[in-house]
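Quick one: co-fold with glycine.
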Amino acid sequence: MTTSQSCARVAVGLGGRAYQILIGNHALDQLPAACAALPGRRIAIVTNATLDRLHGSTLRRCIESSGKGVATIVLEDGEQHKNAASLALIYDALLRDRFDRQSTIVAFGGGVVGDIAGYAAATFLRGIRYIQVPTTLLAMVDSSVGGKTGINHPLGKNMIGAFHQPTLVIADTRFLETLPDREFRSGLAEVAKYGLIVDPAFFAWLEANCGALLSRDAPAVTRAISRSCEIKAAVVADDEFETRAESGRVLLNLGHTFGHAIEKVLGYGNWLHGEAVACGTVLAADYSRRLGLVCIDVKQRIAALFDAFGLPTELPALAPTDLVSAMMQDKKNADDLIRLVVLKGIGSATTTFASGTDVEQFLRNPHAAAYAAGNP
Ligand code: GLY
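Sure, here it is.
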């Protein structure tokens, strides 16, 4: 990572598709020059109504100052709108306005906008450029980086999608000032994930700086975002298409197999993604105990940090059979077995396969199940 006057830079080393992540409280100042350097004449901002009202005119002025023409496409907000209907809205607007292969999309929003706009960029005219301008903590540390794009299907989350890397990510931390508290806390679940899978010192730093992060202390928040992006950039550069079985990019799914099932069974939009991931990560820690990989102190440290972040750590009253049938749809599964990311300690993770019957038995009482297996 290098630091210039107002922003930190993290490089995602992907050869011909390498790009920079710019992080800081004036990172958006870099957007006009970045737009001016793009080949086409037109840029489409994809965003939601709330962000368009709060920041749309600033963003339009910023892009127009590069000499490019701007169109704005406004989507409905929320995970329940991450679907084919929202995607069709983008295609319709781009075709109506005669956008061409030289055009660029600017994805301006959280994970929902970023994933849909990225997938539109991956598929419109067989692929055009896009820039990610994330506005939530979760999007800054995870979904805007690494090129996973897509939409949900009624049968499962992120079931339709493509890998398509952005040409630039601009994480301007000023956008976090208007982010609702619940959304900010939700992003902290993904931040903690990086400590849990590879960096125990970062996890300990999060434990020690919980108060500063929750009060959105600027240096603490910038450090959390920068370290998360450094780890994600390294993981993505090493295993872009998630082809490794027990290491690499798959580990970024810690807590997500349980979490996606909770989101789906509760109904998309009821829990935020990071809330479901927090609960899913505690379940993954309990499942790791069941396998004898970690002791209770690991699970307790994770639950204590998420409690301090105000994130859920207990499974809501949902039928284990419903959760398991949602988990059986997960993209990572093979041969009708559920692939789970499990912990070997704070800062160390791997994967395991489990049958639906085993996971269902575990979910009937995750704490007791770990004890019953004789693991402390
Ligand atoms: N959010 C997980 C990944 O990008 O691989």
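If it helps, The pocket of glycine is lined by residues 142, 146, 148, 249, 252 (CB under 6 Å).
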